[in-house]
Amino acid sequence: MTLLSKKHIDYVVNLNSEMSKQSYEHWLSEHLRMNGLYWGIMTLVTLKSLDSLPRQSIIDFVLSCVDKRSGGFGAYPQHDGHILSTLSAVQILSILGALDELDKESVIKFTKNLQLPNGSFQGDSFGETDTRFVYTALSILSILEGLEEELVNKSLDYLKQCENFDGAYGMRPGAESHGAQVFTVIASFAICNRLDLVNDKLSSWLSERQVKNGGLNGRPEKLPDVCYSWWILSPLAILKKLKWIDLSKLEQFILDCQDDEGGVSDRKGNQTDVYHTCFSLTGLSIINDELYEGNKYDMDSIDPVYCMPYSATKTFKPWPYKS
To answer: Cis before residue 220, ω within 30 degrees of 0?
Structure first.
């Protein structure tokens, strides 16, 4: 099977159509709207078709989601600010070259205020903590040049406590190792220029996530899911261990999960969604860069640390900042 690029582009564009906005599903998913917009934009970026959506309309929507009380972004206008929505907003504006329209200091303050004394981060004022939120905070602050030494050190200390006997990481200290959490920790280490903290066992754990049909799972004995084409593959890319799995078999697994009408599902034959479409294609981009010098799939190159195009991340200042 070949990559159905045009079908996937149309799939994302149709999700943003006026007709879909009148649907029950549209309003049911309001709490994911900012994240969903980012997933759709990253799909289009990866397929070199960002201009398929109206740039200014996207910017206007993102800015309409500012929570003026907290300084962060909600998932939808009038929603409370949350760190996940805030990262998606910052990523979108960065990709569109519109960070100058952002109140950076308010976003930096919002993000820093979510760090707890133990180094973890809350998602919002309601108090849930997760290694996802540490990565999210560090990513926001890295993009906006708001990292500080004390905050970085406390974050790293907390993340090290989330390491398990297998070298992988859970969502908090003592929690089960999970592929998505591994990404958040390894990408956090990369942002902070501390990949020396990675346990040598981790690459083996990551490589063991590949199953017989070529797909990757997030935990031992689980079914493969196409989204782990990003969550497992990107840490391997960061650690320069892509050859530890069979990339050709994973490539075929991803292509098999495509729907003939556009979009990608978690496994072959299931319902498509923009989340799995995004993270399967960004994973395929990593494979494309690794296996094919001629850019077989005509995809943009995606930074495995930020899940953004290198054209955007190349402008980010590395930590520690130099005066």
So the answer is: no
What is the structure's pLDDT at 241? Answer: 98
Spatial distance between the Cα atoms of 29 and 161, rounded to a whole number of angstroms: 34
Q: What backbone phi and psi angles, to 5 degrees, belong to 230? A: -100, -50
What average pLDDT does the chain have? Answer: 95
Q: What is the pLDDT of residues 243-293, one digit of tens each?
A: 999 999 999 999 999 999 999 999 999 999 999 999 999 999 999 999 999
pLDDT recorded at residue 22: 63
pLDDT computed for residue 6 by the predictor: 98
The answer to whether 287 and 74 have CB atoms below 8 angstroms apart is no
Nearest to residue 112, comparing CAs of 71, 68, 158? 71
Phi-psi region of 157 (alpha: psi -120 to 50; beta: other; left: phi over 0): alpha
151 vs 121: CA distance, rounded Å:
10
User: How far is 204 from 218, CA to CA, in rounded Å?
Assistant: 14
What global pTM score does this model have? 0.96
The per-residue pLDDT for 28 is 61
φ, ψ (nearest 5 deg) of residue 246:
-85, 100
Ordered structural domains, the chain, with CATH: 5-313 (1.50.10.20)
